[in-house]
Amino acid sequence: MPSIRDESASCDLSEAALSPAPAAIVIFGATGDLTHRKIVPALYNLERNGILPPETKVIGFARRPLSDAEFRDGLRESCSKFSHIQPMVSEAWDALAARMSYLEGDLEDPMAYARLALRLAGPDMPPNALFYLAISPEQFGVVARYLDSAGLGTAGHDLGETRFRRLVVEKPFGRDRESARALTKTLQECFAERDIFRIDHYLGKETVQNLLYLRFANSIFEPLWSRNHIESVEIDVVESGGIGTRGGYYDHAGAARDMIQNHLVQLLCLTAMEPPATLAPESIREEKVKVLKAIPDYGVRELLARSLRGQYAAGKGIDGKSIPDYRGEPKVAPDSKTETFVALNIEIENWRFAGVPFILRTGKALDRQESVIRITFKRPPATLFAGFCGDRLAPNVLTIRIQPDEGMFLGFNAKVPGAARLTANDLHFAYREDTGDYFPEAYERLIADALSGDSTLFLRSDETDEAWRLVDSLEAAWFSADGQAPLLSYEAGGSGPPIPRVWFRQGGRG
Question: Is the pTM of this model over 0.90?
Fold first, then answer.
């Protein structure tokens, strides 16, 4: 019997996608950890997979005195450790390394930028440039100003339709709303907003990108995606390890600034946004901003009732190794009040989701390492099955696993064969079962998109502004004169502070 499946429905969108353009990729902070662990391994894998244009050049910019050969050798060693595709392919690495060079320079030395401009003007260089700021956030504005002073910015300059200079900025983008606005002002004085690419690497993950396709390419989900059918939405980004060597940064940031403001807010936007008019970057980003603007300006008491904050105590991780008390971690103040766990219950006051609780949760040193979205649908009436399931049926839950074991799982109720009772079952789709072991890393996708000029997976200035509005109000409530939020202690390796059950009901709060 012939299949009724329409094979023509396999739609290839690649023809509509922009292709990476050749450019000189200038990496500021070229000897740092991010460059060695993420950026250069991503460039190597793009080269290996034939995605990086052969005219692309890579220039490392840092203070350390290195020759081109020493720079390349160090990066090759890093790729052999951190590339997610092993073993290394010598031909691919050699082809990339031949196009790498190093420029010694201090970030605050204007002559170093003059030397950079001279190198970029060389006859062997492509006409485009991508400036990647793999440096501390305090230096983002400094580098942008020096680039502009050297004639390498784009604000007020018309490079024409075929040339570009783009600025890639890592998180954190500011420490609060005020500092983020000041940084935006500085960057926009040097580069046009269309040329500023603010990275949140979570948006480069395949499962995150698939949220749009899951929702809007399937007629079975979108009609159910509203307050009429959804009971609650949980978004968890939790880690099993402690802060490790990041104490110097983390103790001044905390979980809300480090994770809620960017990763979790972005997952919230993609889960709750309305269908965009098109798949063009600005259409998608416009709908994400609308979600953030629909989050109410909660008062202090309301935010205290809708949030939990905690800090891990000593315990054992899931690998059996001891994790010290947070206050005993290197570079952490012995009387630190910084939170390592946050749970937040918010609502989106629009027609689609009014009254539906969105529960965001993030933490360190917990009993699991996962990023997951759970959409719990309202239970059907149990009248027909009251005799053998009590007065309530199990809800249908759609679980979207971002990491690990990327995939989607839908829970449903079914009869047990040979018995008059129900059991819970799963329909599941696992990416690795369908595509094998190759999964492009987030940085591969994001760098390719930046070279293509596709800003879909990057943050617009008003997105960061609205995200900081939420986090700033939360931080203000926690330390307000009306009463500070308690800092709950939880054992490392445990499940963290329990979430009030009332949060999971529509209109519920702590």
Answer: no
